[in-house]
Amino acid sequence: MRGFGMHSVDNVGWLEKERPTIGPLDALVRPTIVAPCSSDTHVAHGGSGPKQNLILGHEAVGIVEEVGSEVTRFKPGELVAVPCVTPNWLSRGIQNFRSFSHDRGPSGSFKFVGQKDGVWGECFHVNQADPNLAHIPPDVAPEAALMTVDMMSTGFHGVELADIGIGEKVVVIGIGPVGLMAIAGAALRGASQIIAVGTRPAASRVAVAYGATEVISYKDGPLEQQVWDRTSGKGAHKVIVAGGDAATFAAAVRMTRPNGVISNVNFFDVNDAIHIAPLDWGLGMADKDIRGSFCPGGGKRVQRLINMIQYKRIDPMALISHRFHGFDKLPEAFELMDSKAPDLIKPIVYMD
Fold first, then answer.
1. Boundary-marking domain end, from 260, 292, 324
2. Per-residue pLDDT reduced to its tens digit, 261-279
3. DSSP 8-state code for residue 95
4. Rounded to two decimals, what is the model's pTM?
5. Residue 341 belongs to a domain with what CATH number?
6. pLDDT at 273 (0 to 100)
7. Are 192 and 168 a contacting pair, CB within 8 Å?
8. Which of 166, 203, 206, 205 lies closest to 186, judged by CA?
9. Taking a C-beta distance cutoff of 8 angstroms, is the pair 175, 198 a contact?
């Protein structure tokens, strides 16, 4: 079969691969809509180590083509959402405290593009279909369901890690699609003031629509000073890091008040070094918690996120900024994601 991915680091293109085979618990899915992600470009440029002959992509909705003999909840022909994180639920590692959905290591259940071919092929393999797929109701647009499998799940995970309480003041650093979903999640959790950090006008408008009370930019001065100025000199209760670099993360620690939480859902480069001055952390005694993890996985989580769309608690369609039609448009969509065009939020590709 044909797929789009990486021949080697910094060398992307079309690949010919064997059609995947499935075991008794698994499924084969034909993608109908996919979404390029910055994680795909990160992998293609060697950010997760050298890889060869690998189909990329980890965000998809699609049609079930084949199921294993022991699959009971899904059948061929059904439209499904496929979480980007598909754990091995039979692993002992899944029982680790606070993990619950990573079978080995900090992101061990992120199997697409990490451990096997991704979703940008004529079909792709899903391990343990019953716990790892989600049905899409007829009254939920497939494009909206697609936003749950990573962007919404990851952004909401930043909110979960931060444990945002009613009336708290929150900063969300980065207003890409993950940051925008973190803003929406913070609003749903009852945050009073939500300060978004970003520069792109299109994303800034969406940030306000999702609940940001103001948008600030590093171009206007040190971020922590701007946050202090807007919080009566006290800082934020919770800071969600959904973008930026090591210096940005250090600023996140500075802008967080004592007894606050810094919640990270942002990937840092393997060569980054994060320096936190002791005074910024109260000489180590300021009770500032730093939490970070890869988003949970499995079909139950995505099904709940789809429920939120179905019952109009959130509409993630504003994330979609570019639409491409045709399997052959994958390289163009990937290049757009890689170049980070000024008007980009999230591209999708209809695989028709």
1. 292
2. 999 999 887 778 888 888 8
3. G
4. 0.95
5. 3.90.180.10
6. 86
7. yes
8. 166
9. yes
Measured CA distances, 48 to 107, 150, 161, 271 (Å): 12, 18, 24, 12
pLDDT at 99 over 70: no
Question: Which among 183, 181, 120 is positioned nearest to 148, based on CA atoms?
Answer: 181
Q: Is residue 136 part of a domain?
A: yes
- Over residues 301-321, the pLDDT tens digits come to 999 999 999 999 999 999 999
Q: How many domains does the chain have?
A: 2
Say what percent of the chain tops pLDDT 90.
84
Q: What domain range includes position 105?
A: 2-146+315-350
In the chain, how many H helices and how many E strands?
10, 16
| Same-domain status, 61 and 103 | yes
Compute CA distances 222 → 43, 157, 246, 292, whole Å: 31, 27, 14, 23
pLDDT at 6: 96
Q: Which residues pair with 262 in a beta bridge?
A: 239, 290
